[in-house]
């Protein structure tokens, strides 16, 4: 189904947004074009519109014509059973983009970092229609990496160093303004979330169990273990993400996978800059949440197998360096400490590879939107579990998970 432009999203509305954001009443919008900003499978919890804007403004006494591009991120209308959950996720993102991220970006800017963690938020509206208006990062050359192939080492290093900066700036902010960070308590996994979300993870795991039973390269016992895990997988995820006040904690992006990463490239197609997008499930807790979710979803299988420790060390180097520059009183973990943190929470990677990795590796022609996945009247079916790419990855991962006891109840 084609995405229709909202009736309220017109030139007059965009002019009001730009005038307020730029603090310039001379801005006059003469025309806009609105197109879908993503394709099916690239965004799972909102409707994204790209707005091309033609406008003029007065500069030094002269009327100057300009163009720009904005993104409107809108809460879907089709949320029949879980409006509170969706609105809650949107509230988190609006709070992150309009309040918390500007403070984190400001602290990093004081260190001389030339780039911000995220797009600039121009406007956030909490009432119907619930939406965000943000800058369009594609105009600055940012784009998604090719998700089906998985990230190579260069992409992983750019992403993980930025994660270190994200976490470090959140620690500095938590020390100065605790409520600005610690108010994010729910994330993706929480005992009070709706049964629809719980069923997404449980049903996906059951689908994987059935699929692995048809893979002769795996021991039959693996499929049986996955089937048993399906009944408790969401509860186990809630335990991993539950805040433990005495541990080393950060503000997690908490949906740190390839679809929520934008890269900018040099002339040789080497990634040189990075932005985080989609902040709907951010929450305060162990950094293992972001690291293990990343390992479970985003690197290519060869990079994960060969460079996991190196990537972890690069994260820790950046985290420690920026924490020191921001004069954090919190002590950063050592490498051994971080490895222990990751071991204790290792099941979180299993969860990500069971339920989110299929969305990464699905062929774009077979991708489903969130409504088709969550609210279908038919039996849960996701063709990603049948894909050859997913099978190749999981037949290498699952024996490792099994050998370390991660598939045992």
From TrEMBL:
Coiled coil regions, renumbered to chain? none
Superkingdom classification of source: Eukaryota
Q: Which residues form the CHK kinase-like domain?
A: 132-325
The record's listing under Pfam families reads: EcKL
List the SUPFAM superfamilies: Protein kinase-like (PK-like)
Which InterPro entries does this entry report, sorted A to Z?
CHK_kinase-like (IPR015897), EcKL (IPR004119), Kinase-like_dom_sf (IPR011009)
Q: PANTHER family under this entry?
A: CHK KINASE-LIKE DOMAIN-CONTAINING PROTEIN-RELATED (PTHR11012:SF56), PROTEIN KINASE-LIKE DOMAIN-CONTAINING (PTHR11012)
Annotated protein name in UniProt: Uncharacterized protein LOC107221747
Q: Which organism is it from?
A: Neodiprion lecontei (Redheaded pine sawfly)
For this protein's source organism, the top of the classification is:
Eukaryota, Metazoa, Ecdysozoa, Arthropoda, Hexapoda
